[in-house]
Write a structure and sequence with these properties.
The chain has 220 residues and is α/β, with parallel strands linked by helices. It is built from ten helices and seven strands. The two termini are 29 Å apart. Pfam families: CbiA. Residues 6-184 form the CobQ/CobB/MinD/ParA nucleotide binding domain.
Length: 220
Amino acid sequence: MPILSLLNPKGGSGKTTLSTNLARSFHERGERVLLVDSDPQGSARDWHAANDSNPLPLIALDRPNNVKTLSSMSTSYDWTIIDGAAKLEDMIAAAIKVSDLILIPVQPSPYDIWAASDLVDFVKARQEVTDGIPRAAFIITRMIEGTRLGQEVTAALGEYGFPVLTTRITQRQIYPQTASEGLSVFDGLNTKAVAEMQALTNDILTWAAADTAKESINGA
C-alpha cells in the first residue's frame, strides 16, 4: 500500500503527465490505484473530468492538513499516487511526510537540475528523523530522442545522492494529445510511449522492492 508522490517545485517537469499515466499503468496491471491531486491548479482534476468513463478514482487534497489524512485512506488501495504541487512549500512538506516513495521528475537541463536542490534538502531532512523514509529517486523526463544528454544528466543528478531510474520519458506528442481527452498513452496507438511507461512502472516496482542499502537501479 505504498504512497508514491511525484514532486518537483519547478513547473513543467511533467509531474501530472507522469502521475496520470503511472496511475493508469498500475491500473492496467490489476492494481487498485488512488490518484491524488494536491495541486491547487487542479491539472489532474481537469484531466479526470475530461473523461466521464475514467476508470481511476481521484480525490483532491490541496491543503496540507487534508494531505495528512492519506495515511488512513491509502489502506484500501495497492498504490496511492500523489500529483504534487509546485512552489508551495507547505504542500510539498505535507506530501513528503505521508509518502513512502518520492519520484522527482527532472528535465535534462542544468536549470532543472539546480532547481531540484531545495527539494532534495527537504527530503533528506525528513529522512534523518524517520530512518530513511521516504525513499526518493529521480526520473529524467521530456528527453529528446537521439540526444546523448541522458548520461550527463544522470551523472549530475547522482551528486544529490538519490538513485536515477533507468527509464527516460521521451518528449512525445501522444502525452499532451491523450491528456486533453482525459486519457493516457494506454488509450493511444503509440507503442513506444506505452512501452516507455511500462518500463518506468517496472523500474518503480524494482526500486520499491529493493533493500535501501542495495539501491542500484540508477543509470550511471
